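worker-3 :: picked Enoyl reductase (ER) domain-containing protein
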Amino acid sequence: NKKIILKSRPVGEPKESDFALVETPTPEPGEGEILSRTIYLSLDPYMRGRISEGESYAASVELGSVIVGGTVSQVIKSNHPQFQVGDFVLSNNGWQTYAVSKGETLRKLDPTQAPLSYSLGVLGMPGLTAYAALLDIGQPKEGETVVVSAASGAVGAVVGQIAKIKGAARVVGIVGSDDKRDYIVKELGFDVGINRKTQELNSALKEAAPNGIDVYYDNTAGVILEAVLQQINLGARIPLVGLISEYNATSTPSGPNLMPLLIKRALIKGFLVGDYQHRFNDFLGDVSGWLQSGKLKYKEDVVVGLENAPDAFIGLLRGDNFGKLIIKVNED
Ligand code: NDP
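worker-3 :: tokens ->
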């Protein structure tokens, strides 16, 4: 059995010397287990998180252990009633040529339905990522503009095409080369491609999305997110799916760290009180009642005299006020 193990934790961009190829005897399946031979191994950006220490969305790979990974494999020995020798299965053999499994997480694949490797991509985890985050969070509507980063990749290519299928008027993909840009426009039907390495993002986005951006499917975060935010429309939706621009970072990127938002599936949503006038009667009823019953306390900081307003205002921005700042202009 050939395996690739994690030799050292990469600092910045992973190096070949962080990995080692080792050979061990092929394992034997025990009672209720199967042995499978790996045919395809999926390599995915999340693995960068797995080989680092610290919080990602799953546990780290231990030093000396086989690197994790989704695989398509073929059963070559079986002590499991549900799997026969010759079956193809979606498995998690990781970076190795053979693995033993109890079968719990295996899914049988039918090679006549689609090429086996598709279950690691468009018909598997990356495809579901594209489909679910776009449709459930992005919710593109007919006529809207959708932008996606890492647009020629496993996730992004599917995102852009589903957006088109769902009637988006304009689909813009951000990629890292001219070949990728040609591919997403000419082969995949994106309306515009932007090469993030050679084009100035702000002006390229303005030209590509003249009506603003309704959905930004974010695979990268970083400078692309920063540029996109300048051009989002009222009520835009932004599925935060990946932060690949930061996976190799050796120091904390400037600005807020968005990773906890992804890991905790947190919601940030812009708010303007003017949109909530329909809640005024509910609000007034509830809050008046809580004030009267003493459940809600309220403190005012009253400054007497209109002439003191400038000073009080300057203080408000410094934190001198203690409670709701009010100027008492005249006796009531
Ligand atoms: P891709 O096939 O898209 O490959 C990664 C691509 O990321 C590269 O080809 C490159 O494209 C782009 N990229 C790399 N570095 C940078 C950078 N510094 N700035 C901008 N773009 C960069 O991978 P996947 O489709 O598998 O994954 C895409 C994203 O989706 C990743 O962030 C991944 O972590 C995330 N993901 C999240 C999941 C979730 O459950 N939240 C599940 C699956 C994926 P280019 O050079 O063309 O820009």
